[in-house]
Amino acid sequence: MVNLHLAELTPDNLFGALRLPPQAADEEPVAPVAWSVAEAYVNPTAWPRVVLDGDEVVGFVMANWNPDEEIPEFRAGIWRLNVAREARMRGVGRFAVDQVAEEARRRGLDRITVLWVPGPDGPEEFYLRCGFRKTGDHLFGEVVGELLL
Ligand SMILES: CC(C)(COP(=O)(O)OP(=O)(O)OC[C@H]1O[C@@H](n2cnc3c(N)ncnc32)[C@H](O)[C@@H]1OP(=O)(O)O)[C@@H](O)C(=O)NCCC(=O)NCCS
Predict the structure, then answer these.
(1) CA-proximal residue: ligand 1, atom 18 (nearest)
(2) How far is the CA of 89 from the centre of ligand 1 (A)?
């Protein structure tokens, strides 16, 4: 993974993003990208981005930037993160987290949050390795994590 970069969704990369896991029948602790794209369409504060390795889509991340959001944990942070199966454990997820953190800094923020499904099959270890810590709170049955910038 030498040439990772972040891009907005375009007609050229949309279908690569939609092919990322999970598809409807898959068991994974994150929603399909199609749901996220639909949510972003109706939610102007959503920040969906694809992760490209060269011109190949290897991941998708969606953040949200809304200081007026009722639930504080949804004001600034990661809503979704999907990495292609064949690209996992090669730094794509960490790159996406770093890019969201960078965007948060550009916006003058000092913290981002994420919710994750608890348990050994969830992404907890990944987020802890990326610098998040558990706040001790749970929301909708998920663990609340924060990354101080
Ligand atoms: C979780 C996920 C985003 C991780 O992406 P990734 O590109 O494989 O992660 P990276 O290669 O950037 O890993 C960063 C660090 O986390 C560790 N890590 C990644 N996945 C891990 C796992 N499943 N278990 C333990 N450690 C893990 C890596 O070893 C690496 O550790 P290091 O700092 O010691 O080198 C990816 O596996 C995925 O898309 N999973 C399914 C969907 C999901 O859970 N999304 C998050 C929803 S909130």
Answers:
(1) 126
(2) 6
Ligand 1, residues at Cβ distance < 6 Å: 28-30, 81-83, 88-94, 114, 116, 123, 125-126, 129
Rounded CA-CA distance 95/101 in Å is 10
What pLDDT is stored for residue 83 in this prediction? 98
pLDDT tens per residue, range 65-81: 999 999 999 999 999 99
From CA 101, how far away is CA 96, in angstroms rounded? 9
What domains are defined for the chain? 4-148 (3.40.630.30)
Q: Which two tokens stand for residue 26?
A: 């898959």
